[in-house]
């Protein structure tokens, strides 16, 4: 049986469809798969942008780069441990979701997976 038909409560595969709902034979739990999918999507959107440690980032936060990053047009790049103040969260731009200004580098985009909140 496919994974979507498993009971979300007890993870049993002994389920059946009753009109619009699915019913588990083992625990008698009833659920609507489309409503369950909406809940999961809303939770992931509510989480927002997270850093490498799982902390939620917001506009104006101060972060630290955790890995040496190469930057186009620069011979040195961004070193690990560089503090970045006053970040701005943006819509996904080529995988980058943070817009910031780094001293001696200027404005650039960062990926949230390479920073941690300070």
UniProtKB/TrEMBL annotation:
Pfam family, one: Zn_Ribbon_YjdM
Domain of life: Bacteria
Limits of the Protein YjdM N-terminal domain: 6-32
InterPro entries recorded: YjdM, YjdM_C, YjdM_N
Span of domain Protein YjdM C-terminal: 50-118
SUPFAM superfamilies in alphabetical order: Prokaryotic SH3-related domain (SSF82057), Zinc beta-ribbon (SSF57783)
NCBIfam families, sorted: phnA
UniProt family annotation: Belongs to the YjdM family.
The protein's name: PhnA protein
Species whose genome carries this gene: candidate division WOR-1 bacterium RIFOXYC2_FULL_41_25
